[in-house]
């Protein structure tokens, strides 16, 4: 091919190259336009999703705020209902405890003088036992801490003579309301006092020396002198009352200055533990008639008041529990048997496990052979190991 022919082909080749280049640019532009459209579509969708997510978030926040307001409303209504229930319970208790004719509990001076004279005549006489009970405490077999309830000082007990499962709780050392739980289970599981029935007494009680015995509550009232009030738990009325025939009474236990009379029960019946200014160092013991509250017999005991924190009676024998000002192990260190069967030197020295402080009350249950104790706000059961007095 000659040179003149190459010159003729050059324009044709240049035109072909320009056409291919134009087609390539058009292809690239089309692809870029499609990509831009897709990017724009993705951006629109992303914006829409972000808007929907923001709207959903705002909706959820609004629902949460509404739920929180409803929860607060329900909580307020529940608290209001609880207040109304408590008020209703107090009103019901008030209506139940109202007596159309309140019994007269004024002191009959003549009757009191006769009681004092009779008691002094029978003081320290030989005691004639009513039962064949001849047991005494050998040791503490087991201890069970139920819970912590109420004040540091108080009293809890069952009926010492009946078969009722009810638990009676006296919170503190001065009040007029007794809490009653239907069974031990309810007392153990529930801490709220609204789970318990309330008995509002016609007169306030003082100390922790009270007793539930055969459907009646025997509690101590202070009105100048100290009175033992017999209160029927079934019909919520005062059955009888008696002024204790002891002049210038003093706290019965050195470590429990709030208790002036300790009413106790055992297999023989009802007892009263007290102290007088006349014999300030030692405790006194009296046998009570549970029906009339008359004192059947009185004894001076050799058991000192100093460092005593509680006492109870088992088979006609007074057991006094001692501790120290700085709480240590409580122990039965003095035993006085009114029948003379058990000599003090032959009694076992019983120790209670060291716990929180000192006992503000110790109630012996003759049917269960265990002690219901209140130790610095803790409610404790001591199960006792018993022996015959002649075997000790």
From TrEMBL:
Q: What does UniProt give as the signal peptide span?
A: 1-19
Domain annotation Olfactomedin-like: ranges:
132-388
Q: Where in the cell is it found?
A: Secreted
In the record, the note on similarity to other proteins reads: Belongs to the OLFML3 family.
Cysteines paired by S-S bonds = 133-315
Keywords from the UniProt entry? Coiled coil, Developmental protein, Disulfide bond, Glycoprotein, Secreted, Signal
- Which domain of life does this protein belong to? Eukaryota
Alphabetically, which GO biological process terms does the record hold? signal transduction
Q: Which GO terms describe its cellular component?
A: extracellular space
Q: What is this protein called?
A: OLFL3 protein
User: Do you know which PANTHER family this protein is assigned to?
Assistant: OLFACTOMEDIN-LIKE PROTEIN 3 (PTHR23192:SF8), OLFACTOMEDIN-RELATED (PTHR23192)
Q: Which residues form a coiled coil?
A: 57-98
């Amino acid at each position: 091919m000659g040179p003149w022919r190459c010159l003729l082909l050059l324009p044709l080749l240049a035109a072909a190259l320009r056409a291919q280049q134009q087609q390539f640019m058009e292809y690239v532009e089309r692809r870029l336009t499609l990509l831009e459209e897709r990017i724009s579509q993705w951006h629109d969708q992303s914006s829409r999703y972000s808007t929907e997510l923001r709207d959903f978030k705002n909706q959820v926040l609004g629902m949460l705020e509404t739920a929180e307001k409803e929860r607060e409303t329900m909580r307020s209504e529940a608290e209001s209902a609880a207040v109304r229930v408590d008020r209703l319970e107090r009103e019901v208790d008030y209506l139940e405890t109202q007596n159309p004719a309140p019994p007269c509990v004024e002191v009959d001076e003549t009757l009191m003088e006769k009681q004092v004279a009779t008691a002094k005549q029978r003081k320290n006489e030989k005691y004639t036992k009513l039962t064949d009970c001849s047991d005494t405490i050998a040791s503490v077999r087991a201890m069970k801490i139920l819970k912590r309830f109420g004040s540091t000082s108080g009293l809890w007990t069952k009926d010492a003579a009946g078969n009722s499962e009810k638990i009676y709780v006296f919170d503190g050392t001065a009040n007029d309301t007794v809490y009653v739980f239907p069974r031990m289970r309810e007392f153990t599981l529930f801490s709220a006092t609204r789970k318990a029935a309330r008995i509002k007494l016609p007169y306030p009680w003082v100390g922790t020396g009270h007793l539930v015995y055969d459907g009646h509550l025997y509690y101590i009232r202070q009105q100048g002198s100290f009175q033992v009030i017999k209160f029927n738990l079934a019909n919520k009325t005062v059955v009888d009352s008696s002024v204790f025939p002891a002049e210038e009474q003093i706290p019965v236990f050195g470590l429990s200055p709030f208790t002036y009379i300790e009413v106790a029960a055992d297999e023989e019946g009802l007892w009263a533990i007290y102290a007088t200014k006349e014999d300030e160092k030692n405790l006194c013991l009296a046998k009570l008639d549970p029906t009339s509250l008359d004192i059947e017999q009185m004894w001076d005991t050799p058991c000192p008041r100093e460092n005593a924190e509680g006492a109870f009676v088992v088979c006609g024998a007074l057991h006094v529990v001692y501790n120290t000002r700085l709480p240590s192990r409580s122990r039965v260190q003095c035993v006085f048997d009114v029948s003379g069967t058990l000599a003090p030197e032959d009694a076992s020295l019983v120790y209670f496990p060291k716990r929180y402080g000192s006992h503000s009350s110790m109630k012996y249950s003759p049917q269960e052979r265990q002690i219901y104790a209140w130790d610095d706000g803790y409610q404790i059961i001591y199960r006792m190991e018993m022996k015959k007095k002649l075997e000790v």
